[in-house]
Amino acid sequence: MRAYSIVVDPDPEGGFTVTVPSLPGCITQGETVEECVSNAQEAIALYIEDLVASGEPVPEETTHPQLLLVTVAA
To answer: How does DSSP classify residue 5?
Structure first.
């Protein structure tokens, strides 16, 4: 079993776009965060399945910068 980080970005027209930074080109979408997670799991599984079928290596999860929200007096 593998684990990958996903990035869930709100879409201006509604819903969300999901990317998987460790798997270039692995993108999906959803109307809710819960749907995004489910769709991402499916997209990642299919992405890995295609890599294995092509004899290509499956990338490991890489460390990505952590986003933090800071407050400043302005």
So the answer is: -
